[in-house]
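In these records, each integer encodes one residue's backbone shape. Here is one protein:

___
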Amino acid sequence: MTAPNTRLEAERRGRFAETLCVWSLRLRGWRILERRLVGKRGTGIGEIDIVARRGKVIAFIEVKARANETAALEAVTTAQRARIARAAEIFIARFPDGGDCDVRFDVMTVSRLLPVHLMDAWRP
């Protein structure tokens, strides 16, 4: 079991990484549609860290604070990908013009304060 201080520190590190990624995306022309989008408890729908749009692309982005890109990709499990994909389907169904957009699943990793955007990291 993880100690409460360790869990709290990991949560802070994750939120900080998400904030860095949001600013990085905004600087590159992305519009942030949602942050920390969470489905109802018990539905099996996971949390999406960032939902962003640029042009006709909507990206569902998982943020990982890891040492490198490989570790970040490995940290996104198959089960987590499935939960994110389910949440993305619901979001697209409720989002105006969502059906006209291309959907992509990305991972952003933060190490040494530099966000790295791994586009099209997986496909459901």
The longest strand covers residues 102-111.
